[in-house]
Amino acid sequence: MEILKRTWNNAVTNESTLNFNLDMFAYSSRDPKQDYEKNRNRFKNALIENDDIALANLLYTLDIRNGKGERALFKSYFKALIEMNKSYAIQILPYISELGRWDYVFEGIGTVIEETVYDFVKAYLMMDIKNYNDNKPVSLLAKWLPSIKTHNKKNYFAVKLVKKLGLTEKEYRKILSKLRDKLNIVEKHITNKEYEKIDYISVPSKAMVKYRNVFFTKDEVRFKEFIEELKESRKTKYDNLFMDDFAKMYLDNLRKIGVNYFSGRTIKEAYKNSISYLIKDLSLKELEDRQILLQRFKDEKNLINTMWKKQSKLEFDKNVLVVADTSGSMRGKPFETAISLAIYISQNNKSKQWRNKFIIFSSNCIEYSYNKDREFTDIIDEIPLIVQNTNVDSVFKKILNDSLEKNLPQLDEVIIISDMEFDSVQNKEDMSNFKYWKSEFANHNYELPKIIFWNVARNVGSFPVTKLDYGTCLVSGYSKNILKSIIDIENFNPIDFMLKTLEEKKYFDMVKNIKKNLDKKEF
After folding, report:
1. Can you give the residue ranges of the DUF2828 domain (predicted)?
2. pLDDT of 274-295, one tens digit each?
3. Angle at 514 between CA 511 and CA 517, to 5 degrees
4. Its pTM surpasses 0.85
5. Is 110 inside any structural domain?
6. Same domain for 469 and 327
7. How far apart are CA 39 and CA 350, in angstroms?
């Protein structure tokens, strides 16, 4: 039986998908402050319902390269797993360092698996020391192990760790120093101000986003040379970034130069309005400073556009329409994710009708197209900014009217990227948006296209469809890696899509191995 609720905008929606594991699969949150109790209950219910699927969902949440890569949410689930089944939690430890980051392992400190965590870290550290001495590659453990002192203050977790490892503080410092030198960690070069030692082509994706301003400031000539070299490189990079990282880099730079990008009908218009105001009545010195800032803005755009182009391409062979929600509730990460995803999908869409074109919607919907040679930041600049309510009905109405009036080819799929806080259906407030428009299309002898609801809300609060709504899929998150599962969907129902995704990414194989090793004490 459906458990109904209302969106913020009073539309009928669902409290649950009617399947606890599907609830977990379709939930995302990158909020650093997680609602632990809600997450615990969600994971507990999923584990009781089907532990194989729940553990696979846990690994999918963790996986940076092929899954959602949601750190805070994974940590919350992992703590819940430690409470509910410490044996499973122990066996998952090796997968944490493989699919995520070594520091996630430390979530086990202060719990019933603390001693096992120390043993696990010690075993890998000893292995890395041996590999270092044998001149073999080492793991990234040393990068994430805490230093004894941070900002001239003792790190008491590190002090305790050293004792558990049976080392002196001096021995521990030397080991970390040698292993980090072997790894050529960018943070160490920054701390030591050894910018000439940084190999920019090897800087990890997240570090590039985090430290790019340092690189521009401290090593401008070499860093600009790297950007030009990157343009010529055929190697794909930056696939581990979240889609909002690209738009956020650009929008943050607009804010730095004083542009309120919501103050115009487009960002381009907002920029023109803001710049003319910002340089008004400035002294010569202030104008020079402003000019330096604007040059840096230009350099940043060059970097962002180059990084965007270096991503791997996932091409859609179907007739796919992508729709981005730009309503007021989408501000921040949801908005940045939606427009970045819409651009990426439309650039890689082989459909003649929708290549280099997508729909944005808020109080109304607008079809937005761009030239295939336009840069990423230029495409963002000219997106019409409608930042009002969430009238998804305008999108369905447009699709139906275009089908009736223009005799367009049947759409295979529509990907709606939104926080799903839709407006209620006009004159039909007792029906969900999906159910209403499915019936409307049928009334006109048209089949509603397959709908992929991609939720990018900060915290998913409801679900537009349930497991019973065939012809739909539910996905959530901020990584384009999720697209790999969407490209060749055959069975369009929420449960089958979840199982196909988890199977393709080999998480069920990992769960099988976890269960095999339950009786073993070693990893």
Report:
1. 169-234
2. 877 766 666 667 667 777 788 8
3. 155
4. yes
5. yes
6. yes
7. 39
